[in-house]
Amino acid sequence: MIELRNVEKFYETGAGRTYVLRRIDLDVREGEFVSIMGPSGSGKTTLLSILGMLDSAWKGEYYLMGEAVHKLKPQDRVALHKRYVGFVFQSYHLIDSLTVRENIEVPLSYRDVKRAEAQALVADILDRFQIVGKKDLFPNQLSGGQQQLVAIARAVVAGPKLILADEPTGNLHSSQGKEIMELFKRLNDEGTTIIQVTHSEVNATYGHRVVQLSDGWIVRE
């Protein structure tokens, strides 16, 4: 599903190049649940941003679902992201002026989904995530755990093949975090490929394998 070959990310400075990622080779099969771990500054979030096509300033080869991402024009990368990827951020990134239902519906507005079908998909997700009672509330009326549930619901409503999650439980207390990880496990069991960045050894156990980064290098799998 994913192939990275010799992917590098660096910044040019007066002293030369400062590398964030070095010679990254990584394969992820469809249906895997992979955890990316490493100390702060090791390149974890940068790697996730490249996988999610949120960062385009890098070198190397990246193939997603057989598409050569490194050869695509920016608008084609955006289209590929919308077709296959759901992204979950640590800080939720909900739109404050929209209700829960409207936030979840946002990804469907990017696609050619008829209004009635979009409403049915959102209703199904609200029910599945047990947040029907919250559908008319705004993000500032929700707890952190509830906001993250809504963020994940928004990420999966369009049925992405790949979910990328950046410290998805980092702002939550332990019981809320466990609920989120159990939800990811169920989505993975249903066939969704998941790649998460995490500092948590406990969260990493939900996945099939761990990719360890240090100073921009993969040091262990």
Keywords:
single chain, about 220 residues, alpha/beta, Rossmann fold, 6-stranded mixed β-sheet, 7 helices, about 30% strand
Explain this structure.
This protein is α/β, with parallel strands linked by helices and 221 residues long. The chain has a single domain (2-220), classed as 3-Layer(aba) Sandwich (Rossmann fold). Helices cover 34% and strands 28% of the residues. It is built from seven helices and ten strands. It has helices spanning 44-51, 74-84, 100-109, 115-128, 144-156, 174-189, 201-204, and strands at residues 2-13, 16-28, 33-37, 59-64, 67-68, 85-88, 162-166, 193-197, 209-214, 217-220. Strands 6-7-8-3-9-10 form a six-stranded mixed β-sheet, sandwiched between helices. It has a four-stranded antiparallel β-sheet with strand order 2-1-4-5. Strand 7, helix 6 (174-189) and strand 8 form a beta-alpha-beta unit. The model has no long low-confidence stretch (mean pLDDT 94).
Task: Map the helices and strands.
Blueprint: E1 2-13, E2 16-28, E3 33-37, H1 44-51, E4 59-64, E5 67-68, H2 74-84, E6 85-88, H3 100-109, H4 115-128, H5 144-156, E7 162-166, H6 174-189, E8 193-197, H7 201-204, E9 209-214, E10 217-220
Parallel strand pairs: 3-8, 3-9, 6-7, 7-8
Antiparallel strand pairs: 1-2, 1-4, 4-5, 9-10
Helix pairs in contact: 3-4, 3-5
